[in-house]
Every structure is written in structure tokens, then in C-alpha cells.
Amino acid sequence: MDNNFAKLIMMFQRRRTDMKSNDDIITTNSVYIVHRNRNKNYDSSKKKYLCIFVPFIIVSMLYYYHQGYDTSTILMNTLTMVGVTTSNTTRSDNIHNIDSSTMKANPNNIETKDNSQTNEKILYEPSIILKQKEKFPHLALVFEGGCTGSTAVSRFIKEIIIGHGLQQFDKGGFEFLNINAKWRKGKKHPFYHDVKEKKDFQRKDEEAIIVETVKIAGIEANESRKLFYFKINEKKMNIYRKSFEELGVNFVGVYRENVIDRCICSTNDCFNKEAGYPVFKDSGIKTSLCFSRRNKEEIKIVPHFIDPIPCFEESMQKQSTIKAVDFPSVSTESLFAFQYSDDDDAWNLSIEAWMTILRPFLSEVLNKSLLQESLKKYRGSRQAPRPHSELVYNFDYLKSQVENTKWAMYLRE
User: Fold this and answer.
1) Is the pLDDT of residue 256 over 90?
2) Is residue 125 predicted with pLDDT exceeding 80?
């Protein structure tokens, strides 16, 4: 249906161009810029055009309604497709087939095109482009495990894709591979258990069931024209990477550079009980709040370290695994640098980091300006990370353990 509709649009636009014999048409990379001579009288042409335009715009609006657009998007896309824009707007003659050479030459921004008669912008709508693709990449973000900022990364990705006019495929969410996650509150996984109960999979191993689960979810995401992305740890990445890539899943890595920060978090959450245990900051009394502390920000919990070095070693090893593979990877410190400073260097560092992990996912629809627009309200919105002397109950002990070692570079006094 989409291809037929595109052909109908092209026929209509060619007919519209034929009626404007006095228009000056400039062709650049398959994008047609129409300069209307306002001193000419187009009354007769306009009457003919109106007879075609009225039924066509009705059909266009019904088409977009059928595709699930909201009212405002229906109006915008319909006007876009028929070429009804302001006098200073450049339109694409066929928005469904924007020349790939144009996108490759400028993947991040749609820049202004200058010439002697006009200063215009190519009409660009990510949601239209994406809706014409039969399938598009899914994304697996490889994290070290807990306490690597995955929740914040997920939240920002969702905000960025919404800023592009797109939608997340939310069945299973970012924790899609965490089949038995406690946060599901008794609800079963939207795909896994149905796959497991299929006759053909009852005797198959867990790996085959997980791969089939991702396959079915990916198909449904494509059919609904929504973006499917999820997190995976480095151990599962080694198991599933080949199978997932065959299903159209791209991989990117995210790691927490500061191993001390990660071990503080994992000790407070009781993920690493060998490194130490969480205590109330004021009294030093041990607490069992563990992970639930995250919902009680008014209560100050800090770690009492016993033996933190193995925790540092483990974090470093997981970082090395992620950095060594042949897909892009970035640190959470670079992703979130813009939140802790108004400095241009921090802003540019973060923007480039987000572009790095989103390119394999959004490909040609990724737009740097839209990304910046999504993030700018958070720029400089948080205080810089506090010194570890305020975050660790027995800081003097921690300092003695890392002095004159490779871990000293991560200590904030």
C-alpha cells in the first residue's frame, strides 16, 4: 500500500508541475526546488489544481489516519506530501525516496541550501522515512551489569527518539532479556513464556528460546513501526551476539569508567557483598535497604568498605571486554558530562557520545539538531559528582588501599 501511495503522490506532483509551465525548477540530488514566479497569473491553473487537490488531500488524510498518526501529524504530513508549504520552503519531490547520497553526505543535519534566488531547507521528516522501511535495526546496549547508568541511558534514548517523532517498542521494555525480573510484579514476559510453551520449543535449550523471543518481538516491532532496543550484559553478549545480529540487532557498548564510583553503587545496592556493606551515613549502622534505597533519596546511605580491590578488578575486566569488541562503545561519564556543566567542551563530548551509540540504531534518520533539542533542557542541571570523602563511610581506609596504585586516578578527594 505504501509503494502505491508513493506512486500516486509522484503522479500528482508531476501533474502539479506540468500545470506550472512558468515555474523555475532547479534539480539538486533528486530534491526539486520550485521557485514560483509571483508576477504571473495562475488563475486557470489554480482552478484545475483545486479539482485535484481537494479529493487528494482527503485521501492523504485518510491514509495517515489508517497508519496511526495523531491529528497534528496527519495535517503536517499531508501538506508535506502534496507540497503545500510556505513560499520559502523547499520540498522533496518524493519524500519516500530522498536521495541516499544526500543523506550520506550529511547524516547528522539537514543544512541550508543557498543559491542566488532563495535560502531554503530540505523538507525532512524522520517518522515518514522510517515508516517506509520494511524493517530497521534493533539495538542491544551492552552494559557491565548493575550500577552502570543503564536506567538513565534508557530514559534519554526514549526522549531522543520521541524528539525525532518516533516511538519505542515497549513490550518488555529495556529489561527485555531479564525474563524473571522482580520489577515485573508477577506479570509474565510478553513473549518468552508463549515461545517456551510452543510444541517446537518445549525440548529446546534456553538459548534457542531467547533467540526466538527476540525474533518474534523484532517482527512485531517492525510491523508496528516502533523502535526495539534493550540492554544486555557482557556475558550474554558473548552467548547471543551472532544469533541476534542475524535477526538485525546491532550492538553498542556502555561502561562506567570510574571503577570506584561503580563499586560504591554496587556495595550500596548489596550487589557486591565481598567489597563491603551499606550503612547509614550519619551513624555508620548497617542497613538492609540495599537496592530499595534508590526509592528513598532522603535517606543517606554510604558503603563501609572491607575489601574493595577485587570489585575494582572485576569492573576493569568487564570494561576491557566491552572496549575490545568491534562495535562502538562509550562511557557513561561522556554521555552525561553535559548534565554536570554548562561548558561547551562537556556539551560537545556528550553530543558526540550519544551520536556514537545511536548511529547503528537510527541510521539515516538520526538528526544532530533534534538530538541537541532533546537534551538541552538537562544541560548543567545537576551538581558535579561529589568527592569520595563524602560518599564513603571509611574514606581513609579506601584512600590507603588505592594510593600508589592504578586505582588512584579514579579517587576524588
Assistant:
1) yes
2) no
Residue 280 near residue 255 (C-beta atoms within 8 A): no
- Distance (Å) of CA 281 to CA 131, 292, 299, 393: 52, 16, 9, 7
- Does residue 260 contact residue 312 with C-beta atoms inside 8 Å? yes
Q: Does residue 235 surpass a pLDDT of 70?
A: yes
Domains of the chain: 2-131 (no CATH), 138-410 (3.40.50)
DSSP per-residue codes, 83-121: T---TT----TTGGG--HHHHHHSSS--PEEE-SS-EEE
Dihedral (CA of 385, 388, 389, 394) sign: positive
Predicted local distance difference test score (pLDDT) of residue 91: 30
Q: Which residues of 16-35 are buried (b: 16+ CB within 10 A; e: fewer)?
A: beebbeeeeeeeeeebbbbe
CA dist 83 and 111 (Å) reads 20
* Residues 6 or more apart in contact with residue 135 via CB below 8 angstroms: 222, 248
The closest of 274, 391, 265 to 332, measured between CA atoms, is 265
**CA R_g for the chain:** 27
Give the integer Cα–Cα distance in Å for 288 and 268: 9
CA distances from 39 to 22, 26, 91, 117 (A): 10, 19, 21, 15
- CA–CA gap between residue 224 and residue 227 (Å, rounded): 9
Residue among 105, 161, 89, 131 nearest 370 (CA): 161
- Under the banding of pLDDT at 50, 70 and 90, the label for residue 274 is very high
Q: Which residues pair with 229 in a beta bridge?
A: 139
Residue given cell 534508557 in the structure block: 154
CB 166 within 8 A of CB 358: no
Give the separation between CA 226 and CA 67, rounded to whole angstroms: 12
251 Cβ contact partners less than 8 Å away, ≥ 6 residues apart: 139, 140, 141, 142, 237, 241, 244, 245, 325, 327, 360
Beta strands at 301-305 and 276-280: parallel, antiparallel or unpaired: antiparallel
CA 173 to chain centre: 13
**pLDDT of res. 254:** 98
What whole-number distance in Å separates Cα of residue 372 and Cα of residue 379? 10
Distance CA 413, CA 410 (A): 10
CB-based burial, 61-73: b 16+ in 10 Å, e otherwise:
bebbeebebeeeb
pLDDT of residue 110 exceeding 70, the answer is: no
Distance between terminal CA atoms of the chain? 63
Inter-residue contact 300 to 393 (CB < 8 Å): no
